[in-house]
Amino acid sequence: MKPAKAKLTSGPVSSAILSMMAPMVIGLIVIITNSLVDAYFVSQLGSAPLAAVSYAFPVSFIVGAIAMGLGTGTASLASRLFGAGNQEKVRQVATHSMLLGLIAGLCVVIFGLLTLEEVFSLLGADEQTMPFVKDYMEIYYWGGIFLVIPMIGNAVLRAGGDAKTPSVLMASTAVINAVLDPILIFGWFGFPALGIKGAALAGVLANVVFLIASLSILIFRENLIQFRKNTVAAILHSWNQILHVGLPAIASNLIAPMSTALVTSLISSFGQSAVAAFGLASRLEAFIIIIFMALGGAIAPFVGQNFGAQKFDRLKQGFVFCVAFSFIYALFCIGFFILSVDTLLGFFTTDPEVIKTAKIQLLYCPWGYGFLGLAVIANGSFNAVGKPMPAMTISIGRTLLVYVPLAYWLASSMGIRGVFIAQVLANLLAGIVGFIWYQNVFKQLRLDHQTI
């Protein structure tokens, strides 16, 4: 049996964190690019099928939020156990989290299929698009089972300090999906042309491969799944620990699309050109903010392992490095957009109104990136040590309690630029609160350790 190794508790702090970040960045870029490819192929079927897939976005985000939340809870617990060298407990938690993922996936399928027509009617699907929605979602929902489990598996691997394997798995899944899309949608190479059903089936089949590959690695390479000693009491204990962090993480993940929907509704009051500009600039920002997503993904296992190993000096060094990295990267983003915003937007549109609004967003919002990084670092650290409530409070406070109300207030007096100023101020406040809260929590954790 292979011993559990805490790979992030020794060596240079910067190397440990960057080695986790790099594969995540590559994987996220491939996934985002794949979503654009997917939309392109479906768009060839017409506007109604494309609209049907668009209606699926909120649902897919909810499924993703559940998977990532359970993964966050699992990674928090597993990384601390890796740091403490508790091999048997790591295997137990990994196994029980897989079972929890299976149940969550089944619940998504059952609830989704039973409420399909009602949910998408509420979302706005009409008589023209509803048949396409049904064709797509009746297949798509089954992919929930095959997505949640390997996402949790990836979280276990990252908790052990392996970011490369999860990123390769996710990128490979995205590539398989992109290859299968035209084959199943248009009937290439002798396959039947399934239309929008083919798009859904491509995603499900790619997730099946994702599941098989993830389980194979966990079982045969890492020896992290055990098929014995799984008593009901032990399973419920693991679930309680996982959900202690996982449920607040799910709530935090679900708040983001809600806030985006409210802000989009506000921006629509400035006209369709403003909505188009917001969509374009947000997509460009998504590629920039990937770095902060990867930073948050890297800091969690780093903090979890070193906290489990009681290496508080490394925690301090890691925090200082991440803060410096965030602000240096933010300054780079500010300079990049100042120098290239006109050329960059010119590649995508020639509409002067769209360019004008998108330019405001891309010149204003980066001033808050460094503080967004601070909030991400703090939230990842809180979750890693099993204290999810500060992370949830900062996430909900930043988006729903500060950004949205402030955007509506400033927009009434400053126009659309007020929306982007509100985003900067929300990130600024979240970063400062996260920084102060982090210092207080980790000071107390260190004191508690010294008194033991």
Walk me through the structure.
By secondary structure, this protein is mainly α. The chain is built from 15 helices and no strands. It has helices spanning 13-43, 47-84, 87-114, 116-122, 130-140, 143-159, 164-186, 196-221, 232-268, 272-308, 312-346, 352-364, 369-384, 388-414, 417-451. Helix 5 runs parallel beside helix 8 (196-221). It is globular. The two termini are 32 Å apart. The mean pLDDT is 85.
Estimated helix fraction: over 70%
SSE order? HHHHHHHHHHHHHHH
Q: Major β-sheet, in short?
A: none
The average pLDDT is: 85
Oligomer: single chain
Radius of gyration, in angstroms, nearest whole number: 22 Å
Helix count, DSSP H or I runs of 4 or more residues: 15
Strand composition percent: under 5%
What features would you highlight for this structure?
452 residues; globular
Short description:
The protein has 452 residues and is mostly helical.
List the helices and strands and how they pair.
Blueprint (H helix, E strand, L loop, with lengths): L12 H31 L3 H38 L2 H28 L1 H7 L7 H11 L2 H17 L4 H23 L9 H26 L10 H37 L3 H37 L3 H35 L5 H13 L4 H16 L3 H27 L2 H35 L1
